[in-house]
Amino acid sequence: MKGRLIFLLLIVLLFIVQARDVEEHQQYSNSIMLELIHRHAPQLNDRPKTQLQRLKDLLHHDFIHHNIISHKWRHGLRLRAKARRQAWEETPTTAITSNFSAAVEMPLGSGRDFGIGQYITSFKVGKPSQKFRLIVDTGSDLTWINCRYRCARGDNCTRKGRTKGRRVFHAHLSSSFRPVPCFSQMCKIELMNLFSLTTCPTPLAPCAYDYRYIDGSAAIGVFANETVTVGLTNGRMTRLHNVLIGCSDSFQGPALQNVDGVMGLANSKYSFATKAAENLGGKFSYCLVDHLSHINASNYLIFGTNHNQVALLGNTRYTRLELNAISSFHAVNVMGISIGGKMLEIPFQVWDIMKGGGTILDTGTSLTFLTDAAYKPVMAAIKMSVSKYQKVKLDGVPMEYCFNSTGFDETLVPKLTIHFTDGARFEPHWKSYVIAAADGVRCLGFLPASFPGTSVIGNIMQQNYLWEFDLDGNKLGFAPSDCSSS
Fold first, then answer.
1. Which residues pair with 261 in a beta bridge?
2. What does the alpha-carbon distance between residue 449 and residue 325 come to, in Å, rounded to a whole number?
3. Which of the residues are catalytic?
4. How far apart are CA 442 and CA 402, in angstroms?
């Protein structure tokens, strides 16, 4: 009898182990897949804009966004320089304390840490879940939504689901909403980089923040941990617990029209990319089609490995992904740029992070920014290839070279290649750097940036490629794709 009981117990234990193995396999073999919509898509705009109006709009936001990137880059340099001085001047124990206090001293008043993304996705938060439309931005650290928190304290507050055309998250209706206390170390130290406020009227009062955007937009609210519901590629739904969100009870400005908040995908502890990818192999990826494509063309954001969800049109290439090198952006090691197979003469310091340069990929910037020493030779080489066409000046478009593209011969455009230090090469489609600006007009899709400073590979240059960010392996994979589901 005892032998039969032991045998049955072993069978039960074996079943539990196998079930757990299956569960873990499913956890890592499935991925989260979200559809991305460009903010110029017809379904987001009551009055469709002309191609020229769209370009002006993109340029306006690009200059704002690059100022934000430059601010973060300069601030990172100051912190690293200060840490190096303290490590040199003081004992190891004191140096550790000093580095800690340096983080505390990060400026709260700038409020320019967040950019304006160009792609939007759906986002379900709370229990029961409430659905919202968020800007997706690889340069933003925090995910925040239009929210009403005070209702939970009995304030006179409407339960309507929208304010001024935007959806509203009612925190008191969610059983999983957990405000971050203002007295906690998380609020005082860890969230200082996300512009938490020092105000703390009572120990259990929520940790508050105040963002001030360069263009006059603003977001004010409280930090909380919440539950997010997402769909897996196997058709099932799953929940991500303890996701840090911002509950913004006040936000306004041109950057935030037609949306309910921002999804932060930067490389930082509390970004949604880090949280969503941590149980899915530490990876996320996206594929962006031409933003002028037909309405039925889809863009995808994937957390986990791309198990052929998006069809590829060529081999995947890999290069090192530099994390924490330029603030919380995703940086890459560029060696140079060639045009038509000829390597351009660009000083290497343009690409060297330690010498005041560096390059990042960013979905929140549309065009590609190159610091002057790279911008000038790239523009000169491509201008030469299209010089037979009449130069055109577009009012309100601060781009150096536009031309009449009537009868344009695309075979004249030389191949542009970005070379990485480890031998990988990125070869964007010619339409990604000789862009359609208006009817019968094309422009060279680059903008100048000052040096020292960061070069930015914008989302138009990234189009028609699948980009996979391996956060655990510090590796960036990219392959040509039409972004269609396979």
1. 134, 145
2. 19
3. 137, 362
4. 6
